[in-house]
Structure formats: structure tokens, C-alpha cells
Specification:
3-5_Exoribonuclease; alpha/beta; exonuclease; ERI-1_3'hExo-like; binds adenosine monophosphate; about 35% helix; 7 strands; binds magnesium ion
Amino acid sequence: MDQKNQINNDFDYLLILDFEATCEKNVKLECQEIIEFPVVVLDVKNQQILDVFFHHYIKPSVNPKLTAFCTELTGIKQEQVDNGISLQEALAQLTLFLEQNKLIGSSFTFITCGDFDLGNCLRREALYKKIEIPQYLKNYINIKKVFPKQYYPKQKKEGDNRLPDMVGMLQGLNLKLDGHHHSGIDDSKNIAKIALTLLQKGFKFNKNMRAFSNY
Ligand code: AMP
Ligand code: MG
Ligand code: MG
């Protein structure tokens, strides 16, 4: 292993998280609720996505019935959320997962694709339901914001200043989209591949790249 790599990276582990939430086409729900909660672990020093990952379906309480649109988009079935756990329980399980895998005590950061997951969705639902959020989920790196311009997909037109989305980042790195786009676990694994490929190209994820959720 390259020693320089060890010294220059601020994090031992990158925890890639991509929530799926209740939704309806062209409707803003009063409380959008998390229904899929996956976390994929990337070992920075060994440049490896770990086989062990965190994954739970969550039972929504405000809108317990999934819309056909939501099931179509995410591939998540009613039965999976009916058998799911509560958000509060999932948060407790995540802390246990991080302890059992010796992640708590190491240096890690969460990585998301956009600000929706940890900047918006979890924060709003936690406020609505008065759920306490662990401190470690209150900051994250939005990979879209730090993704190097040199790897932007070629199709992007000159003067298009939008940040690349997951599909664009995969294309720009010549990676294929595995699984079902908008499945939380498949999205997390695809985002993890993007992060891993950047590491392999010498990219460093730094503490100063983090955004903080103010709540
Ligand atoms: P994503 O991580 O891109 O799969 O999206 C996360 C969540 O955002 C989904 O579970 C939906 O609740 C919502 N969402 C994503 N795309 C759409 C869309 N086209 N229309 C409505 N909601 C969406
Ligand atoms: Mg997402
Ligand atoms: Mg997703």
C-alpha cells in the first residue's frame, strides 16, 4: 500500500448513503419519509468496498401506503416496507453496525450524491417526528460538489453549469450502472464505485469538503 495515500487522506472509511423516500408524481408530500436506508462502506487505505453493508427498509407512518409511482421509481414493494423497522430503530441499528464494525473510533465521513439525503430528507423527517439524530449523521460530503471537472461526461455542453448526477459521473468515469437506478442499495453501491474510482485516480476526500446540516 502506498504510504503517501495513507498520510494524505483525512478519512479511513467513506460511508456511502442513499435514502429512498415516499413520493408521488408532481406532489409535495407534507412529510416525505425514508423507506430505504442503506450504507455501503469503502475502506480508503485498502481501496476496497467492503462486503458487509447496512441495509434496512423503513415502515412509513404518515403515508404507510406506497404510491404506484414510488414503487415504480424505487422498485420498493409495499410488503418490504410493511415488514420494515421504524426510522428510530434504524438509527439505533446503524450505531450498533458502526460499533460492531469498529467504524466508531476510526475516522469516517458520510458521502451522498446531492444534499437531499442528509441535508434535507433526514433533517425534515426528524424535526417532524421529533427524532434525535446521531451527531455523526450531521455532516457529509456531497460527491457531486467535489467530483473533478476533468471527469465530467463529454455530452455536457459548454456553459452547462449544473453539477453532474450519478449517471453522469458513472459515464464520465466509464463505469456501468449496476442494478436498478433509484433502488437505495444499488444507488449506494454505484456511488461507492464512483468514490473508489476517484481514490484509485489519486483523489483525496478532505475534511474541508464536508457540509454541515444545521439542526
Ligand atoms: P434517488 O436517490 O435519486 O433515487 O431519489 C431519492 C428519492 O427522491 C426517491 O426515493 C424519491 O422519493 C425522490 N425522487 C427521486 N426522483 C424523483 C422523481 N423523478 N419524482 C419524484 N420523486 C423523486
Ligand atoms: Mg439519492
Ligand atoms: Mg437513490
